[in-house]
């Protein structure tokens, strides 16, 4: 592993150091060169307070999904080099865990301030490597910052609890202590928010972090590491390692010093990680696949339901684990909902993210082919297409907002997560039928429910087998809420005070002063 060596300059930075780093990472012909602060563009991994490149010289190219243009490249570390990040985190752990919670909170608060100060650059960076519309990217930066702000305060909350003794002459206390090094694996669809939601909770708890971002969107994570360094987060407390996930993550899975793993991604990969973590009995938090049902009853406010349905389906171009995948509509309003929903889908704008459209590009060719497969399968089984149906003229990774109606229960799209701008709609006749169909899935992340009947709201909120239920609205997430799912949509929760629990051990102390 080759450090970016700048002898005679400390890690908190100097003008000479910053200029040298800027020259080292510049991609002068890339759109990334247009950032106000070019030092946010990093091509090396951040390990132990240093920016390091792979000894092999191997790199991973990053492209703009809207145009296919080359943006830049990041270093691709080996397994041995990735293990050094765990070494750095383990070495930093005693100092970070032993720091006053107020000090950890102060550094997190400064990180939060720097994220907001650089909001526009971070949003632009995200658009270029991920593709989402610029307004959504700005919203994600605000969302990402909110977790850092929240956990800056929450760092002070874990307290020693006194227990009423049941033993003579004994005093009892319960302590909360950080578990150790936490490994974080983050996805490409929310490259900033998923990192801060995990990292801020772990750091607030007193854990040190090794993080691996998706190879498709590494620049957002590296920019956050740069800002964490500027905020004064100590060397080794927060490490970001780029490269192949299979290679980078493997040594962390077998390392007993890595006591917790937090992963956001597919259920298939989650199962593999779950098995691998068993050997060292790690704490696990996983936010896996989703297959959200959208239940609309005839008594609902149809105007609102249509608007909320469009948001639930097409935000992030449909590339969202919270995205509604199955629209189940009570038959009396079925035809009207289908037409009104399709009418709104037809006028959604499709373009590159910097033009702030409603729909941006999908992340890669594999994602586009999945949309095509699900559409073709549904049509072959008797569904009708009221909007879209195929690739969009804007480019090879653009897919038109698509609405399929009369989708039969055996269609792939009603069984699998689509993760794109394709909506599948089917009618139902009874509440019992709607509930049974909604729960007939291995997934259980979020369900959307639209009805005015308070008794039905209560019944279905209890009966739906989902970790989150959104009633008559779409937006439910935020730093103060426990985000997570049931069944094969995940384990544990992120956000809220619950988000720190996976990173803390409970220690019981029973004391006799004799």
What does this structure look like?
Helix content is 38%, strand content 20%. The chain has 14 helices and 21 strands. The strands form 5 sheets. The chain has a 7-stranded mixed β-sheet, sandwiched between helices. It has a 6-stranded mixed β-sheet with strand order 10-9-8-11-12-20, with helices on both faces. Strand 8 (181-185), helix 6 and strand 9 (208-212) form a beta-alpha-beta unit. Helix 2 crosses helix 8, helix 3 packs antiparallel against helix 6 and helix 4 crosses helix 5.
Q: On the 0-100 scale, what is the average pLDDT?
A: 94
Number of helices: 14
**Over the alpha carbons, how many angstroms does the gyration radius reach?**
24 Å
Low-pLDDT residue spans = 2-24
Order of strands in the sheet with most strands: 15-16-17-14-13-18-19
Backbone shape: globular
Q: Count every beta strand, where a strand is a DSSP E run of 2 or more residues.
A: 21
Structural class: alpha/beta
Residue share in helix: 25-40%
Cα end-to-end separation:
54 Å
Please summarize the sheet with the most strands. 7 strands, mixed
Strand content: 15-25%
């Amino acid at each position: 592993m080759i450090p970016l060596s700048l002898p005679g300059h400390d890690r908190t930075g100097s003008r000479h150091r910053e200029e040298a780093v800027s020259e080292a990472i510049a991609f002068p012909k890339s759109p990334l060169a247009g950032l106000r602060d070019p030092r946010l563009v990093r091509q090396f991994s951040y390990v132990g307070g240093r920016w390091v490149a792979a000894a092999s010289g191997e790199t991973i190219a990053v492209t703009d999904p809207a145009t296919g243009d080359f943006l830049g490249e990041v270093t691709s570390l080996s397994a041995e080099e990735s293990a050094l990040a765990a070494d750095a985190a383990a070495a930093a752990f005693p100092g970070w865990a032993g720091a006053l919670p107020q000090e950890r909170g102060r550094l997190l608060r400064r990180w939060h301030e720097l994220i907001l100060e650089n909001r526009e650059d971070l949003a632009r960076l995200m658009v270029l490597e991920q593709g989402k519309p610029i307004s959504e990217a700005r919203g994600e930066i605000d969302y990402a910052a909110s977790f850092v702000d929240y956990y800056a305060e929450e760092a002070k909350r874990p307290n020693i609890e006194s227990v009423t003794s049941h033993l003579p002459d004994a005093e009892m206390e319960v302590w909360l202590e950080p578990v150790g090094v936490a490994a974080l694996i983050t996805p490409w669809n929310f490259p900033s928010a998923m990192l801060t939601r995990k990292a801020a909770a772990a750091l607030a708890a007193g854990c040190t972090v090794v993080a691996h971002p998706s190879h498709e969107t590494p620049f957002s994570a590296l920019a956050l590491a740069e800002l964490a360094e500027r905020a004064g987060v100590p060397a080794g407390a927060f490490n970001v390692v780029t490269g192949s996930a299979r290679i980078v993550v493997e040594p962390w899975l077998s390392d007993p010093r890595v006591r917790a793993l937090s992963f956001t991604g597919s259920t298939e990969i989650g199962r593999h990680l779950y098995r691998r973590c068993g050997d060292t009995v790690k704490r696990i938090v996983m936010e896996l696949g989703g297959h959200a049902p959208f239940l609309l009853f005839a008594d609902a406010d149809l105007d609102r339901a249509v608007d909320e349905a469009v948001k639930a389906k097409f935000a992030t171009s449909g590339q969202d684990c919270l995205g509604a995948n199955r629209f189940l509509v009570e038959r009396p309003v079925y035809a009207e909902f289908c037409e009104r929903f399709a009418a709104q889908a037809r006028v959604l704008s499709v373009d590159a993210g910097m033009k702030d459209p409603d729909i941006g590009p999908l992340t890669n060719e594999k994602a586009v082919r999945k949309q095509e497969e699900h559409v073709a399968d549904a049509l072959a089984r008797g569904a009708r297409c009221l909007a879209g149906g195929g690739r969009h003229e804007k480019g090879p990774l653009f897919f038109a907002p698509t609405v399929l109606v009369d989708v039969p229960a055996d269609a792939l799209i009603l069984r699998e997560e689509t993760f794109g701008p394709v909506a599948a709609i089917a009618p139902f006749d009874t509440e019992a039928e709607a509930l049974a169909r909604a729960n007939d899935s291995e997934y259980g992340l979020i369900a959307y429910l639209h009805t005015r009947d308070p008794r039905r709201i209560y019944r279905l909120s209890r009966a739906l087998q989902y970790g989150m239920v959104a009633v008559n609205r779409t937006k439910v997430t935020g730093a103060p809420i426990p985000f997570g799912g049931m069944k094969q949509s995940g384990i544990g929760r992120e956000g809220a005070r619950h988000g720190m629990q996976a990173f803390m051990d409970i220690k019981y102390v029973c004391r006799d002063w004799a």
